[in-house]
Design goal:
The chain has 126 residues and is α+β, with helices and mostly antiparallel strands. The chain is 44% helix and 24% strand.
Length: 126
């Protein structure tokens, strides 16, 4: 996993990520506000939101390499805030997907995914 510390507060990081994904043609499938869900069962956790997103133009070529990568798609980004207020954006490194699914001969696709995710993270955290 890649962990990027945000220069923004939690809400701004989340808002900037969602805006960036939309601008780049990504579909946001779900926004899971774990901390709000936890409150519903009487558990308090620090702000935590999972954003699930993707685009068939990016995911389909990766799945053409191996369908099993579909278990890890669409992509996910986790935004968390710790007790001191530090906000982090975390996502799976595409190198992990390559290793996990033994992807061969798809380095160009993985590189494209890697660059896109890094750009999304940078836009949200700067």
């Amino acid at each position: 996993m890649l962990h990027i510390e945000s220069n923004n507060d939690f809400a701004t990081t989340q808002e900037k990520l969602l805006e960036t994904l939309k601008e780049k043609g990504m579909k946001v499938f779900a926004t899971v506000r774990h901390s709000i869900g936890a409150e519903g069962v009487g558990v308090t956790i620090n702000p935590t939101t999972l954003i699930i997103f993707g685009n068939p133009k990016v995911g389909a070529p990766l799945m053409a390499c191996t369908q099993m990568v579909g278990i890890d798609l669409p992509q996910k980004a986790l935004i968390t805030q710790d007790e001191e207020g530090k906000v982090m954006l975390t996502y799976n490194d595409p190198a992990y997907l390559k290793e996990r699914h033994e992807i061969r001969s798809c380095d160009a696709v993985l590189e494209k995914v890697s660059k896109a995710l890094a750009n999304f993270a940078k836009a949200a955290t700067n």
